[in-house]
Design brief:
The protein is α/β, with parallel strands linked by helices and 230 residues long. It is built from 8 helices and 8 strands. It binds D-xylitol-5-phosphate (DX5) and zinc ion.
Length: 230
């Protein structure tokens, strides 16, 4: 089976109705989301607090497809088993979250989950050069993590292109996270990304009661990304 490097849209539920997460997950999947991106924040690694493994476990029955868990927490190792048990499919840790990212990625794979590593805008792509044979995904942050609705940091585009070169034929997804919209999706797709996280750009204008906008937003972002690939 050739590695599936087609464009995937991963709405971030950080932009969803926090009082209605289950219904929001069902709505975005029904409207065409490929993955559901779950932003876990601890108020320590990032200046915001969202939710933990219990929330992921509660969401699991409402997500038919891939639960893409983005751990913006430090330390990360003590919580890996809980997120794996909660039903995460992909568990992504930040290379900046501690001194032992290699051990963290080994632990994620030992739990039977797909392993991702994330890079903040200030971190060189060389920081993952020695990890590319032990990950399933590299997430390039195009905002400083902690909040949705921020402005895309264009200086990250050469980093994405360099990462695409470094990955070569390895079965490793490039995920881009932060400020992805119809306008920036073509830039990241052209640079080599295949998994596009989008929170505010997907949820804007819609609701659980009226999710049509979710579908329109997802289709527009996907079309813009695919057109840029040619
Ligand atoms: C930020 C999160 C992102 C964010 C994306 O720390 O990791 O996933 O929710 O939100 P938008 O697409 O609105 O920038
Ligand atoms: Zn995220």
């Amino acid at each position: 089976m050739p590695f599936n490097r087609s464009i995937k849209i991963a709405p971030s539920i950080l932009a969803a109705d926090f009082a209605n997460f289950g219904a929001e997950c069902r709505a975005i999947e029904a409207e065409g989301a490929d993955w559901v991106h779950v932003d876990v924040m601890d108020g320590h690694f990032v200046p915001n607090l969202t939710f933990g493994p219990a929330m992921c476990a509660a969401l699991r029955p409402h997500i038919k497809g891939v639960m893409d868990v983005h751990l913006m927490i430090a330390p990360v190792d003590p919580y890996l088993e809980a997120f794996a048990k909660a039903g995460a499919d992909i568990i992504t840790a930040h290379v900046e979250a501690g001194p032992h990212i290699h051990r963290t990625l080994q632990a994620i794979r030992a739990l039977g989950k797909k392993a991702g590593v994330a890079l903040n805008p200030g971190t060189s792509v060389e920081a993952v050069a020695d990890l590319l044979d032990m990950v399933d995904l590299v997430c390039v942050m195009t905002v400083n993590p902690g909040f949705g609705g921020q402005v895309f940091i264009e200086s990250q585009l050469p980093k994405i292109a360099r990462l695409r070169q470094m990955i070569g034929d390895r079965p490793v997804h490039i995920e881009v996270d932060g400020g992805v919209t119809v306008a920036t999706a073509p830039l990241v797709a052209k640079a080599g990304a295949d998994a596009l996280v989008a929170g505010s750009a997907v949820f804007k204008g819609g609701s659980v009661a009226d999710p049509a906008a979710y579908g329109a937003n997802i289709r527009a972002i996907r079309a813009a990304a695919e057109a840029a690939r040619g």
